[in-house]
Amino acid sequence: MTHRAVLLEALASTPADIARLARGLDEAAAARRPAGGRSCRDLIAQLSYSEEHSRAQFRRILSEDAPALTAPDLTLAVDAGEGMAVLVEQFARARAETLAWLSALGPGAWQRPAVHPTGGRTTLRFLVGELVASDIALTNQLVTVRNQWRAARPEVTDE
After folding, report:
1. pTM across the whole model
2. Backbone angles phi, psi at 36, to 5 degrees
3. Where would a tag sit more exposed on the chain, N or C end, judged by fewer CB atoms within 10 A?
4. What would the pLDDT profile of 2-16 be if each residue is shown by its tens digit?
């Protein structure tokens, strides 16, 4: 399996992981922010924002010669107040669009250069790998927030 195929497979797996983690959270639980942290809603909104930002950067790499990329402005990753199911679906649709676009690229396109805002010269392939790493980090945060929620709720007993 090529490195490109591994990256695409990893990207493709995230929406199902997010849907599984969001299942069972009511709206109040999804909006709960642990002390100093972000809610499940915040994290899923960030995934959607990061997806759109990354795809825009990827397109620039193909249309410009070694563009100087911009860092994402995470203050724009806001929860617009939709229900959890809508947030999860928005992310899944955005990811499907990214996957379709990346899958259509030839191997040479994956080596197109760009200038990372903090890392210097890079390639589209490296940036796709960074998106995978971001998915992992945000999914881990979502697991942590969910676990904190589960630990804080009172036990349900059968009476």
Report:
1. 0.91
2. 70, 10
3. C
4. 999 999 999 999 999
Residues 86, 19 contacting (CB under 8 angstroms) = no
- The count of residues in the chain is 159
Alpha-carbon Rg for the chain in angstroms: 17
Report the candidate in 98, 127, 135, 141 with the shortest Cα–Cα distance to residue 16. 135
**Please, which residues have CB within 8 angstroms of residue 134's CB and are 6 or more apart in sequence?**
50
3-state SS, the chain, equals CCHHHHHHHHHHHHHHHHHHHHCCCCHHHHHCCCCCCCCHHHHHHHHHHHHHHHHHHHHHHHHCCCCECCCCCHHHCCCCCCCHHHHHHHHHHHHHHHHHHHHCCCCCHHHCEEEECCCEEEEHHHHHHHHHHHHHHHHHHHHHHHHHHHHHCCCCCCC
pLDDT tens, position by position, 95-152: 999 999 999 999 999 999 999 999 999 999 999 999 999 999 999 999 999 988 888 7
Could you tell me the two tokens for 17?
A: 């992981």
- Amino acid (1-letter code) at residue 51: E
